[in-house]
Amino acid sequence: MSTIFSKIISGEIPAYKVAESNDYLAFLDVNPLTRGHVLVIPKKETDYIFEMEDEGYVGMWIFAKIVSQGIKSVFPCRKVGIAVVGLEVAHAHIHLIPLNHVHDMNFEKPKLSLPADEMNKIAEDIRESIARITNSN
């Protein structure tokens, strides 16, 4: 089951990475709903999030929590929303989306198309924010 996410993990396809551990990867959605829209994935290929082993499942949510704190500090918002859909890519993933309004998480609305330099800056800002958060704990 080689998906686009597997190719991102292996480095075959580039991504705007914001955080990485031995088991998980977080990167910007290339077709975001809002600026700062991040995807969190396990490195172990699993199609359906609820088929993950308990330890990996819990670990991914803890990783997502840390990433969400970095997003929120870069993109002041009311909350960082989460969504697990899993229909477009057969690889478990969590969407982290800065929210100020409920319609910010409407997957049917037109996606943003941001230039590469802006995507690089967003990824860098989130990475730096996560580093500050994790170093202060």
Automatic annotation (TrEMBL):
Molecular function per GO: catalytic activity
Superkingdom assignment: Bacteria
Organism: Sphingobacterium alkalisoli
Lineage: Bacteria, Pseudomonadati, Bacteroidota, Sphingobacteriia, Sphingobacteriales
Protein name: HIT family protein
Residues forming coiled coils: none
Record InterPro entries: Histidine_triad_HIT, HIT-like, HIT-like_sf
GO BP field: nucleotide metabolic process
Domain HIT: residue ranges: 4-107
Residues annotated as the enzyme's active site: 93
Motif (Histidine triad motif): 91-95
